[in-house]
Write a structure and sequence with these properties.
Order of helices and strands of chain B: EEEHHHHHEEHHHHHHEEEHHH
Strand order of the largest sheet of chain B: 1-2-3
Strand content of chain A: 15-25%
Structural class of chain B: alpha+beta
Distance between the termini of chain A: 72 Å
Number of strands of chain B: 8
Shape of chain B: globular
CATH architecture of chain B: Orthogonal Bundle
CATH class of chain A: Alpha Beta
Strand order of the largest sheet of chain A: 1-2-5-4-3
CATH topology of chain A: Beta Polymerase, domain 2
Low-confidence stretches of chain A: none
Low-confidence stretches of chain B: none
Number of domains of chain B: 1
Distance between the termini of chain B: 40 Å
Mean pLDDT of chain B: 88
Radius of gyration of chain B: 21 Å
Number of strands of chain A: 7
Helix content of chain A: 10-25%
Oligomer: heterodimer
């Protein structure tokens, strides 16, 4: 199978990094070449963007750089300090400046509608410039807050719609301007403010040794077992 | 005529799993749809925050019961990106062989589930029969029939057994002959053609904007494939192309194109397996012991906070992506991931398809939905 070579990949990454830095220099957006550490050691574009410039960056990527595909939106919770529901202290890597992170994975695919009865067979080795498929990883960092908010890009990539729904549902990050926000994976009648991937929520076998010591859960007692009745 | 809402699911022959499609109909025409997911949400992402990098593999196997090997490998590549693991080339070849076998088995499962939807029960039985050929081969590798737990961070669990290559070649030869029988049965069946041709038109650009990938977008006439666009494994060293279909109308691809592209993809996967068996380093008839350096290199087991890894992978239903952030575990020592995020192709595809079927008849809903190969296990995770 003919595939993109590492020279093509490098040239595309350099081009994208330079153009992003040039265009968004004053906005505080920084782009750099990130490198995969596995297998082929290909590069990708890592962009750190202040959340208030995310929409303009997204529009520029979509309509001028040909980034036509939004793969995934991930929300991460970095609490400053917290207790689990059972009172145990949890470890937290959060800082006052970094309480939440939204990581967005984009890909440039360069897909055009073919004519009727035709097929576009792309010859990978002949692609140049902004035709070369490229991976982007965008990172939006939010400070410590109880109401994390980032702007929605639902109108730019249709594929962002359900990704944003999922991120709000599981992590609790709000997307301003998102139409029709709703629970998608949790039950529709989940309590307000319940977002299970926030760090204060603990799974049943949080410590994996707990699972091996008591695989069937026979030794677990109800929380009020030591009370006199 | 008054419009009304019909609820299809969670138990419905159309759904291929537990989910609900609420359909607003005007007479026989679909006017609006609302998909409802999440019936089998298991919280895999949360569970994996308390599991180390080897323990996560079986959970990823269980994301999709029809395509366990591709999901496990999808995770493995992201974990290797995070941990910076080296993989021997022979292990990459073995992974490639196993993942292409799984792709064939998955497409056969799709064809077997799709044809009863559009009125052809024979193919269901045939597909399950031929799927056994590949499940038997995968069982030789992983030891179980459905959830193999076969790839490891840094290699694979076992080497190819002695005689595996010969059995694989013989079975593939038989399977390629049988595939022609399938095509004779389906491409000349009036019922099948009437139910699929000109139904469920989708354009390539619309699909990619909505996040639909894989065979579904290749059916619309673009040969985009992660295997050559963001190359991983050893796909560039073996023969084979990404199968692509011609868009049959200016509305884009229909259900028949999506059927055709999966049929040619099975043939291409067979070619890739044969080519990989011929060119595997060390020879296909050699068997190395467990943890031999030809098939496994011990990887680092911890990733500090601040490191992350992601990988786009060509799953049998589209592009699956894993994102892993290091630094989890007790006191942040990094033995667990701090956050694992899964991008499931079907989670994004199902809402798109629900909108794409507006304007068609109620009877077309199973044909359109089934042609995109929905799998609810990975959708709800």
């Amino acid at each position: 199978m003919q595939s993109i070579s590492s020279e093509q990949n490098l040239s595309a990454v350099e081009l994208a990094v330079n153009e992003t830095n040039k265009r968004f220099e004053e906005a505080g957006v920084t782009a750099e070449a990130g490198q995969h550490r596995s297998g082929r050691k290909f590069s990708f574009v890592q962009i750190n963007c202040p959340p208030n410039h995310w929409v303009s960056l997204a529009k520029w990527l979509r309509f001028e750089q040909g980034v036509d595909y939004l793969s995934m939106i991930t929300g991460i919770h970095f609490p400053l300090e917290f207790e689990f529901i059972d009172g145990q202290k949890g470890y937290n890597p959060g800082t006052p400046e970094k309480g939440w992170e939204v990581v967005i994975h984009l890909t440039r695919k360069g897909i055009k509608n073919p004519n009727v009865g035709e097929q576009t067979v792309i010859n990978a080795s002949k692609l140049t410039g902004i035709e070369i498929p490229l991976e982007y990883q965008i990172s939006l960092i939010l400070p410590q807050t109880d109401e994390p908010k980032v702007p929605s890009v639902q109108s730019i990539w249709e594929g962002a719609d359900w990704n944003e729904k999922e991120t709000w549902d599981l992590v609790g990050i709000e997307f301003e301007g998102h139409q029709n926000m709703m629970r998608v994976l949790n039950p529709h009648d989940s309590p307000l403010g319940f977002h299970p991937l926030q760090k204060q929520h603990k799974i049943r076998y949080h410590d994996h040794n707990e699972m091996y010591d008591d695989a069937q859960g026979f030794m677990r007692k109800p929380l009020d077992s030591d009370k006199k009745k | 005529m008054a419009e009304m809402w019909i609820t299809m699911g969670p138990q419905h022959p159309m759904t291929h799993g537990l989910w609900t499609l609420r359909v607003k109909v005007d007479g026989e025409t679909v006017v609006d749809t609302v998909p409802e997911l999440g019936y089998i949400h298991r919280g895999v992402e949360k569970i994996c925050e308390a599991r180390d990098y080897t323990q996560i593999t079986p959970y990823c196997d269980r994301l999709c019961y029809a395509s366990a090997m591709t999901w496990a490998q999808s995770y493995i590549y992201a974990a290797e990106d995070l941990l910076g693991a080296e993989v021997p080339e022979r292990a990459e070849y073995i992974r490639l062989i196993s993942v292409e076998m799984q792709r064939i088995a998955s497409h056969l499962m799709w064809l077997g589930a799709y044809c009863p939807d559009v009125g052809n029960l024979t193919v269901f039985v045939w597909c399950l029969r031929d799927r056994e050929l590949f499940l038997d081969l995968l069982q030789e590798l992983g030891g179980s029939r459905m959830h193999y737990n076969f790839p490891r961070v840094g290699g694979v669990k076992r080497d190819l057994p002695i005689g595996f290559a010969n059995r694989a070649r013989a079975k593939i030869e038989m399977f390629l002959n049988r595939l022609q029988e399938y095509e004779m049965l389906l491409d000349e069946s009036t019922i099948f053609l009437v139910r699929t041709q000109g139904v469920g038109a989708c354009k390539a650009e619309d699909m990619i904007n909505a996040g639909v990938t894989g065979p579904n977008v290749r059916a619309a006439g673009v040969n985009y494939d992660v295997r050559w666009a963001h190359p991983y494994s050893v796909y560039d060293q073996i023969d084979g192309i990404a199968s692509v279909e011609k868009a049959s109308s200016n509305q884009g691809s229909d259900c028949y194109d999506r059927y055709r592209v999966r049929m040619t993809e099975m043939v291409e996967s067979c070619n890739m397996i044969l080519s990989a068996l011929d060119s595997i380093p060390g020879g296909a008839e050699t068997h190395y012991n467990k943890k031999d350096e030809m098939i496994y290199i011990k990887p680092p087991t911890r990733a500090p906070a601040g490191q992350n890894g992601f990988h786009h992978f060509e799953d049998s239903r589209g592009e699956s992506t894993f994102y892993l952030a290091g630094g989890g575990g007790k006191k942040g020592r990094g033995e667990f991931p701090y956050r694992m995020s899964i991008r499931s192709p079907m989670f994004i595809t199902i809402p798109y398809v629900a909108k794409a079927m507006i304007g068609y008849k109620v009877a077309d809903i199973p044909a359109i939905m089934g042609s995109f190969d929905p799998c609810i296990g990975e959708t709800d995770r």
